[in-house]
Amino acid sequence: MIDNKKVLFSGMQATGELTLGNYLGALKNWVTLCDEYECFYSVVDMHSITVRQDPAELRKRARNLLTLYIAAGLDPEKNCLYYQSHVSAHAELAWILNCYAYMGELNRMTQFKDKAAKHTENINTGLYTYPVLMAADILLYQADVVPVGKDQMQHLELCRDVAQRFNGIYGDVFTIPEGYLGKVGAKIMSLQDPERKMSKSDENANASIYLMDDPDTIMRKCKRAVTDSLGCVSYGEEQPGIRNLLDIYCACNGKSTEEAVKEFDGKGYGEFKMAVGESVVTVLKPIQERFTQLSTDKAYIDQIIKNNAEKANYYAQKTLRKVQKKVGFPERIR
Ligand code: TRP
Asked: What percent of the chain clears pLDDT 70, i.e. is strictly above it?
């Protein structure tokens, strides 16, 4: 608890450009959470180097992501937006937790298996202990809730197991976090393969709408979206493409599915796709404008980065000191 509020922690990697799916499914909802929770949103650059990165590119993307957080509506006075690498306690706690996580547990992580299969030339130990660093992220802030996608649930479970193990030995040190089960955002699927999630790492550029796509690109991608030959706009199992477009349309303009289906009754897919594209453009335009404007204000962003890193550091140190004492590290002489 911080100031009588529960604590919420989440992180995003700065690899790949954010998609409309990231926005409608996560970011958009994060914006509303700061009234109820004390929120920490980290740009997890330390996780990013588990896969080889171009340094200049990583730095740029990390900054863009943090700027985009703000452009999308996260108020940096009310949410702690910071770089993971600016708070060294993440690395320090991760080391300690490494000594409480079992290889047997890490061996079961499906994301590690997937990534190891994909990067056979660089199966480094950081990739292996990635979930332990993630546990450190969460536990450092004594987070109560962690909004994560399904793909991160296994990591969150590991975090809970390690925290419980640690608490079992040393007493109540860590808050045991829960997955965030509040109002979940729309799950947006690929425009080219509506059975798969829209992903920032999709090789097919037409599959995802990126937050920074210009209006023409957005319209073109919507027009090319995979549909079916049924020819009617309805929300059925057998029309995953149309359903996804309806989800996008409704998430963008707040209409209900029924309303939207009624609106396009008897209309063709062409017209429907145009309307979907326009609704996306309308949502993204102000975010893009704000992003461009913020990007020119270096001093403002720098100040946010500095202040929020200090704030994060303050809470992280509190937990780290407690943990260091519990495991038997000697007290600091002042
Ligand atoms: N691994 C997460 C992802 O790729 C990002 C992440 C890192 C995270 N640390 C976290 C998410 C802590 C939630 C909490 O999506």
From this structure: 99
